[in-house]
Design brief:
CATH superfamily of the largest domain: Vaccinia Virus protein VP39
Order of helices and strands: HHHHHEEHEHEHEHEHHEHEE
Largest sheet: 7 strands, mixed
Number of domains: 2
Length: about 300
């Protein structure tokens, strides 16, 4: 593996070397990927690389960086190599048990915060994040609401569910590291809304980024070696298998004037709106992401 490379190069040398190597791959951001992986190998920040551009990289660190580059060349995402991904206002721990948080999903957090601010007159609120994965949605929303819904004034019950024990472990780890002690998110294992339906509570806001990619497209997405969990992507033949299952559960779980925020993506947002309308939801609207693709659907139970 590149045994001929001189391992006594400077930070600048290795940064440029990594960029050149990754330029030969399918990545759309070879320079950024190289910087992130070099910073991780050196246990520093990306910005510090330029400050120490002429520093010599120790041989052990250089070898570690080369291993990271080889993994990236095989298609493994930077986030899985570094085990972290920036989302909303925090760095989240991720591993191969969860999807990597995507910037497009931040619109769900943004809309959830707006909705909760509009419900400030209610002193008791029930909130759920279904298919929580890394916990990026639940933790991000919770980190925001505690600033405008003080615990001494509000009774907030917050739940996050997932069918995967490994995913829940990642979500709990993120809650512990980002929120610290004393947070009140109840992590429950189960299929979609089944765990929160068992509570008998009526929810004011239900959020979800469920698997919604059609099975055939999942196979195509995973061919590049990204190694994201198929369970967290595959929404069945048309991508709507879990959404169809979820909609009647959501209807039963929501309180009057309760709101659903569900990421559906460009594959099936139109049909998701039709399914919600048939079930009786109103004020149904789909928001587009930064790329102009249909991404987030909102619906209300009245």
């Amino acid at each position: 593996m590149n045994e001929g490379i001189n391992n006594s190069g400077t930070v600048g040398f290795w940064r440029n070397w990594g960029t050149k190597r990754l330029s030969e791959s399918a990545t759309a951001s070879p320079s950024l990927d190289s910087m992130l992986l070099l910073a991780f190998a050196l246990e520093t920040s990306k910005n510090n690389l330029f400050v120490h551009d002429s520093d010599v990289v120790p041989e052990l660190k250089a070898n570690t960086f080369k291993e990271f580059i080889e993994r990236r060349l095989k298609g493994e995402p930077v986030a899985y190599i570094t085990e972290q991904k920036a989302f909303w206002k925090h760095d989240f721990y991720v591993n191969h048990s969860v999807l990597i948080p995507k910037p497009d999903t931040e619109i769900l957090v943004e809309k959830a915060v707006q909705i909760l601010k509009q419900k400030k007159e209610k002193k008791e609120l029930c909130i759920a994040d279904v298919c929580t994965g890394s916990g990026c949605i639940a933790v991000s929303v919770y980190s925001e609401l505690i600033h405008f819904l003080p615990a001494e004034e509000y009774d907030i019950q917050f739940f996050a569910t997932d069918i995967s024990d490994k995913a829940l472990s990642v979500a709990k780890k993120n809650a512990d590291s980002i929120l610290g002690s004393g947070y009140k998110i109840n992590f429950l294992k189960g299929d979609l809304l089944e765990p929160i339906l068992r509570t008998g509570l009526q929810f004011d806001l239900i959020m979800s980024n469920p698997p919604y990619v059609p099975s055939k497209i999942v196979s195509e997405l995973l061919q590049d070696g990204r190694n994201e969990p198929e369970l967290a992507l595959d929404g069945g033949e048309d991508g709507l298998k879990l959404i169809r299952q979820m909609i009647p559960q959501v209807w039963n779980a929501l309180a009057k004037n309760g709101i659903l925020l569900v990421e559906t993506g460009e594959y099936n947002a139109d049909e998701t709106r039709n399914l919600l309308k048939k079930r009786g939801f109103v004020n149904i609207l789909t928001y587009t992401d930064l790329g102009g693709q249909q991404r987030l659907t909102i619906a209300e139970k009245v």
